[in-house]
From TrEMBL:
GO terms for molecular function: cellulose synthase (UDP-forming) activity; cellulose synthase activity. Mn(2+) binds at residues 278, 302. It comes from Sorghum bicolor. This is Glycosyltransferase 2-like domain-containing protein. The chain crosses the membrane at residues 33-57, 542-561, 567-592, 668-686, 698-716, 728-747. Residues 197-224 form a coiled coil. Keywords: Cell wall biogenesis/degradation, Coiled coil, Glycosyltransferase, Membrane, Transferase, Transmembrane, Transmembrane helix.
Length: 748
C-alpha cells in the first residue's frame, strides 16, 4: 500500500513535448522511392547496354548522358534521407509552467547580427531587436545583443532609441498579451485584440505614437550627415571594438516592468584580419554575452528575421528542459524553428519559400537525428556551442584547467571565469553589471591561436556557417536537434530577396559554401566517421546539400546534348518507354511532395515554380557556385559572403505580381539565357528538319526540349518580348545570342 502510494507520488510528470511519426507518409515515401529507383535503374541499364553495343554512333555523348543520369540518381538517393521518417512535434508550455516556476526558467541570450545599414535599414533591424525583447519570457532572464559589423553610428543611435521605445512596448505586450511582438507588423494591423477594451485602445494609441517617433527619429538620423554621413565605407572595415550596455533603470521603474537588457557590440575590424563574416560576428557576440550575462541558452536571429510570436522561447524550453528531467538524458543541442517569410508572393516565382527545406526535408530529418542548423531562429545550448560533448562521457568545461581553457577560449579572465562558473545563473535576478564591459573579447587579435572558429563556437571556413557548424559542432559529436513548427502563427518571419539577381547571388553563396564542405578532404560528410557511425541517413542528408551544386552538371548535359544531337539527327534515348516513365515519375514524386507540404491540396503553381527555378538555379547559382568552389579549392580566390538586400515592400512589386525582375542581373544569368536561346533555336531547326525526314526516335528528345522551352519561357520573354526596365539587360541578351550562335556554329 505504502509502496503504491510512493509510486503514485513519483509518477513521472506529463511530458513537456510530444513527437508523432507520420506512418502512412513514411510508407508512401518509401514505396514511391522504390518505384522511382527501379525506373531510373532501367534507364541507366539501357544506356549501358547501348554503350556496349557496337552500333553506337556517338560514344562521347552516350557516356556523358550516362554520367548525367548517374549523378541525378546519386543526388536523388541522398535526398531520400529527408523523406525517410517524417515526424511532427508538439510543445506544451502550460505543463512547463506547472513544472517550473516562471522565475526559475533558465536564462536566454538573444544574438542579433547586422552588417550594413544601407542594405539592412536600421528601422528593420530595430524591429527585430524590439520583437525579441518582447518575447513571453521573464524579462530578467532575457538579454538581447546586437552585433553591428559596420560599426555604424546610425545603428548605435537607432539601438538607443529602440531601447527607449522598448520601455513602453515591452510592458504593453506583456500587459495585453499581445501576440505579435513585432511593432511594425502589429501597428500595420496584425493586431489580434481589435475592438478590445477602451484601456487597451488608449494605450495602443500612446505606444503607436512612440513608434512613429522612433521611425521619424531614425529617418532623421539617416538624413543627418553628422550621423550617417560621417561614417565612411573605409571606416566600416577599419575601426575599434565598441561595446555598450544600453539599459538603465530610471527612477520609478518597476523591476517587473523592465524590458530585457540590450547590448550593442561592434567588433574590431581591420583590413589585415579576416572577419569570417557572420560566423565571426556571432563568435564575438558569444564572447561578449559570455562575459556579461552568460545565459545557458542562446537564440540566434538574423537582423531580418523578427519574432512574429511571443511564444517561441517557452516552446523551445519544452524541448530543451526535457533534457534534464529525463533519464537517461537525451542529448538535444538545439531547437530549430522554420524560416518563414513575411513578403512572399502568392506566385512565388523564385521559390523563396524554401518549401523543399522547411516544409518537407526538415520534418524528415527530424525523424532521423534532427534538422540541420539553419542560420537563424534556433535556441541552442551555450555549452554545446562551446564544444562540450553530450552525456554519457560529456566534457565538462567547468572542471577544465584554467590554462587549457585559455588555450581554447583566449586569454580573457572574465570569459574563463564565466566558463568555470558552469554557465549558470550567478546573476539570474540581477540586472546586468553597471561596470563597463571589456571590449577585449571583441578585438581582432583575440582569436589568434585559439580554437574559435574550429573547435569552439561557429565554424569558419565556410560561408554557410550554419550548415557547417550544425554538422561539425553538434551532430558529429553526438548531439541531436528538434524541429519546432508552431501553427498557425509562425514563430519568426524574415524577408526574402525580391529581384532575381539577389536570389541567384544568394543561391550561389549557399551552393559554393556547401560544395566547398562537400568536397573537402577533411570535412566531407561522406568521409566523416563519427557522423557516419551516428547515422548514415543523416550523413546522406548532409552530403545531399554538400553536393547539391553538382546538379549543374547533369542539367548542363540535358540543356545542350539533346539540342545539338537533334540537329544531327542522333537519338539520345535508347529506350523511350523507360525514359518517359522515369521522367513522369520524377515529376509525380515532386508533385506528391508539394501536395503533402500543402496538406493534400494540389498546388500546381508551386510545383511549376519549383520545377522552373530548379533548372534555372542549376544553370546559374549552382553552376557558378561550382566554379567559385573550384577556385577556392585551388586557392585562386576566397569565397565571399555577398549580403542580400532587405527590400522595402514597395521594391518587390514585380515579384508580388509574379513577374521576373531581371534588374541588375549580372553575367551570372548568362549560362541560363544562352542555353534557353540554344534550346529554342534547336527546336525550330529540328522541327523544320523533321518535316522533311520524319524520325520517330527523335520525338522523346524533342518533347524534352519543349518542356525545357516552357520552363525557360520567362527568360525568352525577358530577352525578346519585354521592353520594360526590368527586362533582361540588353547586354546579357546580346551576349547570350552570340554565345548560342557560336555553340551552334561549332557543334550544330
Ligand atoms: O559579414 C557579415 C555578413 C552577414 N552578416 C549577417 O548575417 C545575416 C544573414 O545575411 P543575409 O545577407 O541576410 O543572408 P541570407 O542569405 O538571407 O542568409 C541565409 O544564409 C546564411 C548562410 O549563407 C545564413 O547564415 C542565414 O541564417 C540564412 O538566413 C544578416 O543578419 C547579416 O547582417 C553579418 O553579421 N556579417
Ligand atoms: Mn537574410
Amino acid at each position: 500500500m505504502e509502496d503504491g502510494e510512493k509510486k503514485d507520488s513519483q509518477a513521472p510528470p506529463p511530458p513537456l513535448s510530444a513527437v508523432h511519426v507520420n506512418r502512412p507518409l513514411v510508407a508512401a515515401n518509401r514505396a514511391m522511392a522504390a518505384v522511382h529507383a527501379a525506373l531510373v535503374a532501367a534507364v541507366i541499364a539501357h544506356r549501358v547496354l547501348a554503350l556496349l553495343s557496337v552500333s553506337v554512333v556517338s560514344r562521347h555523348v552516350d557516356v556523358a548522358m550516362a554520367l548525367a543520369d548517374l549523378t541525378l540518381l546519386f543526388l536523388w538517393t541522398l535526398s531520400q534521407s529527408g523523406l525517410w521518417r517524417p515526424v511532427t512535434r508538439a510543445a506544451f508550455p502550460d505543463r512547463l509552467l506547472a513544472a517550473v516556476p516562471r522565475d526559475a526558467l533558465p536564462r536566454v541570450d538573444v544574438l542579433v547580427v547586422t552588417a550594413d545599414p544601407d542594405k539592412e535599414p536600421p528601422l528593420g533591424v530595430m524591429n527585430t531587436v524590439v520583437s525579441a525583447m518582447a518575447l513571453d519570457y521573464p524579462g530578467a532572464a532575457l538579454s538581447v545583443y546586437l552585433s553591428d559589423d559596420a560599426g555604424s553610428p546610425l545603428t548605435l543611435l537607432a539601438a538607443r532609441k529602440a531601447y527607449a521605445f522598448a520601455r513602453a512596448w515591452v510592458p504593453f505586450c506583456r500587459r495585453h498579451s499581445v501576440r505579435c511582438p513585432w511593432p511594425d507588423r502589429y501597428f500595420a494591423g496584425d493586431d489580434d485584440a481589435h475592438g478590445g477594451r477602451e484601456e487597451l485602445a488608449e494605450e495602443r494609441a500612446r505606444v503607436k505614437k512612440l513608434y512613429e517617433k522612433l521611425k521619424a527619429d531614425i529617418e532623421a538620423a539617416n538624413k543627418d550627415d553628422n550621423i550617417s554621413g560621417s561614417w565612411t565605407k573605409a571606416e566600416r572595415q577599419d575601426h575599434d571594438a565598441y561595446v555598450e550596455i544600453i539599459s538603465g533603470k530610471e527612477d520609478g521603474d518597476e523591476e517587473e516592468e523592465m524590458p530585457p537588457a540590450l547590448v550593442y557590440v561592434a567588433r574590431e575590424k581591420r583590413r589585415a584580419w579576416p572577419d569570417h563574416f557572420k560566423a565571426g560576428a556571432l563568435n564575438a557576440l558569444l564572447r561578449v554575452s559570455g562575459v556579461v550575462s552568460n545565459a545557458p541558452y542562446v537564440l540566434v536571429l538574423d537582423c531580418d528575421m523578427a519574432c512574429n510570436s511571443r511564444a517561441s522561447a517557452m516552446d523551445a524550453m519544452c524541448f530543451l528542459l526535457l533534457d534534464d528531467r529525463r533519464s537517461p538524458p537525451t542529448n538535444l543541442a538545439f531547437v530549430q524553428f522554420p524560416q518563414m517569410f513575411h513578403n512572399l508572393s502568392h506566385n512565388d516565382i523564385y521559390t523563396n519559400e524554401l518549401r523543399y527545406i522547411f516544409g518537407t526535408r526538415w520534418f524528415g530529418l527530424d525523424g532521423v537525428r534532427g534538422p540541420f542548423l539553419s542560420g537563424t531562429g534556433f535556441y541552442v545550448r551555450r555549452d554545446a556551442l562551446y564544444g562540450a560533448t553530450p552525456p554519457p562521457g560529456s566534457t565538462d568545461l567547468s572542471s577544465m584547467d584554467a590554462g587549457d581553457l585559455k588555450a581554447r577560449f583566449g586569454h580573457s579572465d572574465r570569459l574563463v571565469a564565466s566558463l568555470r562558473g558552469g554557465g549558470d545563473d550567478q546573476r539570474r535576478r540581477r540586472r546586468l553589471p553597471p561596470e563597463p564591459v571589456e571590449s577585449l573579447v571583441a578585438t581582432c587579435a583575440y582569436e589568434a591561436g585559439t580554437a574559435w572558429g574550429t573547435g569552439v563556437g561557429f565554424m569558419y571556413q565556410s560561408v554557410v556557417e550554419d550548415y557547417f557548424t550544425g554538422y561539425q559542432r553538434f551532430f558529429s559529436r553526438g548531439w541531436t536537434s528538434a524541429y519546432c513548427y508552431p501553427e498557425p502563427r509562425p514563430a519568426f518571419l524574415g524577408s526574402v530577396p525580391t529581384n532575381l539577381n539577389d536570389v541567384l547571388v544568394q543561391n550561389k553563396r549557399w551552393m559554393s559554401g556547401m560544395l566547398a564542405v562537400g568536397v573537402s578532404r577533411h570535412h566531407s560528410p561522406l568521409a566523416c566517421r563519427p557522423l557516419l557511425r551516428a547515422s548514415l541517413l543523416q550523413a546522406m542528408g548532409y552530403a545531399y546539400f554538400g553536393f547539391a551544386a553538382l546538379y549543374a552538371v547533369p542539367v548542363l548535359c540535358y540543356a545542350t546534348l539533346p539540342q545539338l544531337c537533334l540537329l544531327h539527327g542522333v537519338p539520345l534515348f535508347p529506350c523511350p518507354a523507360a525514359a518517359a516513365a522515369a521522367f513522369a515519375s520524377s515529376l509525380l514524386l515532386h508533385l506528391a511532395e508539394v501536395c503533402v507540404a500543402r496538406r493534400g491540396r494540389m498546388d500546381l503553381r508551386t510545383w511549376w515554380n519549383e520545377q522552373r527555378f530548379w533548372v534555372l538555379n542549376a544553370l546559374t547559382g549552382q553552376l557558378l557556385g561550382c566554379v567559385s568552389a573550384a577556385q577556392e579549392l585551388l586557392g585562386a580566390r576566397a569565397l565571399d559572403f555577398d549580403l542580400t538586400t532587405k527590400a522595402a515592400d514597395a521594391d518587390g512589386r514585380l515579384y508580388q505580381d509574379g513577374v521576373f525582375d531581371f534588374t541588375g542581373c549580372s553575367t551570372l544569368l548568362l549560362p541560363a539565357t544562352t542555353l534557353s536561346v540554344l534550346n529554342a533555336a534547336a527546336i525550330v531547326a529540328g522541327t523544320w528538319k523533321m518535316t522533311f525526314q520524319f524520325a520517330g526516335e527523335l520525338l522523346p528528345q524533342l518533347f524534352l526540349m519543349c518542356y525545357g522551352a516552357a520552363l525557360s519561357y520567362p527568360l525568352l520573354e525577358g530577352m525578346f518580348l519585354r521592353w520594360d526596365a526590368a527586362r533582361v539587360p540588353p547586354r546579357i541578351t546580346a551576349l547570350s545570342v552570340a554565345s548560342a550562335a557560336v555553340l551552334l556554329a561549332v557543334f550544330g
